[in-house]
Amino acid sequence: MLALDPRLYPQLQLTELPCPNPGPAQLLVRVRAAGVNRADLAQAAGSYPPPAGESPVLGLEVAGEVAACGAQVEEFFPGQRVFGLVPGGACAEYCLLDAALAVPTPDWLDDVGAASLPETWLTAWLNLIEIGRLAAGQRVLIHAGASGVGSAAIQLAKAHGAWVASTASAGKLEYCRALGADLALDYRQDDWVAEVRAAGGADLILDGVGGDYLPANQRCLNADGCLILIGLLRGKDAVLNLGQLLVKRQRVQGSTLRSQPLAMKAQLATALLHDVLPGLDAGRYRLTLDRCFALGEAAAAHAWLAGNHNLGKVVLTVP
Ligand SMILES: NC(=O)c1ccc[n+]([C@@H]2O[C@H](COP(=O)([O-])OP(=O)(O)OC[C@H]3O[C@@H](n4cnc5c(N)ncnc54)[C@H](OP(=O)(O)O)[C@@H]3O)[C@@H](O)[C@H]2O)c1
Question: Does the pTM exceed 0.85?
Answer without folding.
Answer: yes
